[in-house]
Amino acid sequence: MTLRGKKLGLLISTQPNQPNFERGLKLAEAALAAGVIVYLYCIDEAVAGVCDPRLQALKARGLHLYACAFGAQRREQPLNDLATFAGLSVVNELVAATDRFVSFN
């Protein structure tokens, strides 16, 4: 069974130094390698990881990266072009539009 062209949605809410942040990145990396279209949304503590070089490397490989604008402002993280900053309606759209949706909390 080929995964090429399938869509995977990921939500990460943990700090970049936590194991589940790393697990989310590893899943995104494996999925991209298999030809899966990957959408990743950072929320809560994970917004601090938007500038993480590992995440930015995945973005350079085709990862669609989103981050919670409210969470970033609340944690005094800059709103920049490293991710598309958006609200929770984007998470709803990702859940509805992807073949699988996984959360790392």
Question: What does this molecule look like?
Answer:
With 105 residues, the protein is of the alpha/beta class. The chain has one domain (7-104): Hypothetical Protein Ychn, Chain: A. It contains 4 helices and 5 strands. Strands 4-3-2-1-5 form a 5-stranded parallel sheet, with helices on both faces. The longest helix has 15 residues, at 19-33.
Task: Summarize the SSE layout with pairings.
Blueprint: E1 7-12, H1 19-33, E2 37-42, H2 53-60, E3 64-68, H3 69-74, E4 84-86, H4 88-97, E5 100-104
Parallel strand pairs: 1-2, 1-5, 2-3, 3-4
The average pLDDT value, as a whole number, equals: 96
Number of strands: 5
- Class by alpha and beta content: alpha/beta
Using the CA coordinates, give the radius of gyration: 13 Å
Instruction: Give the overall shape.
Output: globular
List the quaternary state of the chains: single chain
CATH superfamily: DsrEFH-like
Strand order of the largest sheet: 4-3-2-1-5
CATH class: Alpha Beta
CATH topology: Hypothetical Protein Ychn, Chain: A
Q: Architecture, according to CATH?
A: 3-Layer(aba) Sandwich
Number of helices: 4
Major sheet summary line? 5 strands, parallel
Percent helix, as a range, is 25-40%
β-strand amount = 15-25%
